[in-house]
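Worked problem 6 (solution included).
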Amino acid sequence: MLITCTLFLTVLFLDYLVFQILFFKFPNEMEWDTSHWYNFAHLRNEVKRETQSKKVLIVGSSVALYSVLPDSMFAEKDKIQTMFYSHVAMTPTDFYYYKDDIKKAKPDLVVYLLNFADLQWEYVKINQEKFEFDKDLWLKEYAVRYPVRIYYPFEFLRDFYHNLDKKQTLSLASKSLLYVNRYRSFLFDPIETWIDNHSRSGRSFQRYSGSMPFEGIWSKGWTKLKTTLSCDMERPLDDSIFTLKNDTKLEVIVFKSEKDKSPYSSQILSFPKNGWNVFPWDHISLPPDKTTVIIQIAIKSEIGTAREANLYQYGKDYPVGVRLSHYFCSKPNYENSSYLRSAFFDESRFSEMSADEYEEDYHIRIKKDAENRPELLRLNTLRRQKMAVRDIPFQPWFEYDQIVRISNFFKENEIPFTIILSPENPIESNLYIEGLWFDEFKKDLAKNLKKNGYNFFDHTSSIKEKQYFFDPHHMTYDGAKTFNPIVKQIIESQVKADN
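Solution. The predicted structure is:
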């Protein structure tokens, strides 16, 4: 018995040492919108580090992640550091179970960016103006959700074990005991990324991280028909390009500097086969002793499109040039950028559309044949629920009550807290924001927060330009830049008020 207990405790100790401590010391070289669950697990360690500035945590789902840009919100002199504590599909229940971990981070302010889409409408039925929360379905599906199984299996098991079946109970119990069981879904993600970055040719990547073309670029590295960028020549010249068509011809023009109007050289390059090709720097005439040059690449043969490049399936199509390798024309930067967002043409293209062009494109992407497109299932559910609740009285349900419990917990632990309703696409928000339900929802939430001395801000309609949204709830980079100063002002007022 003693030997068995010793072995068991040894396994638990080694599991904790390897998978909860050493694992997170391995370099995180992830990029934005990659390996969500590993990045959030890594982030939970990062936010607990001591800072010399006021620490503000921005909590929420992917809607929150796409609503603000914390890294550019404050300058160092402001002595305020904003950090995400967010992951995709974060629900109020997730937030409720993270509250103790947030407390350990010792934040000076917690900001909850909340959206209609976060309230788990899939489990709410409305019959004769009455809310019915399907807790059985909620429990069945929650027990197998990644956040539950990775971040709070023991706590969820403790609270709901009497409603779980044997299989669910054993699964959550095993994940409560061993971190390797929790993390196995993403265990090799940081390792594979490190190998891709350091041992391969830069042809396998999630987000382009090279020199940014003046004309803009798609996140997968596809250029426009003509692209101009600054090239660092003090590095190994091992760049690659991907051509979409056979017999592609490119004109490559070299300038000594951005100010030069006359090119230093110009040449036509031919690529007989489509696919990845080594960029032939040795065939390009370059100015001697220049550490940086400007190059311009233009397609001079058959043109491909964004759909042909498999960038998306629906919406207005665009011509594309070539795909650039991961760090084209620049020295690699392997720092963790998993919560740092960059601007790409994927989103900026909407800002270039007129209102009518955007609505036509939006209809094709988000509404057309929606009932037969599985990827739009949840958006359809949300749209139906917005129309269903519009003119009925507000009634609290389980996920809403979780928000109230979070507020009470922060009050008990003297943690400043505020809620901001994030902006929503006017095309969709107009379905419900003028109705009775939304008015009473805001009043009830504000009342519950005020009892604890907390503030509530409604910015659902603050962003009027629909082109700043790429779907009903997620803002483009331009939209986040526009909303950033509004959130900054709120944070400044709340931090000062708590001093």
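Discussion: The radius of gyration is 25 Å.
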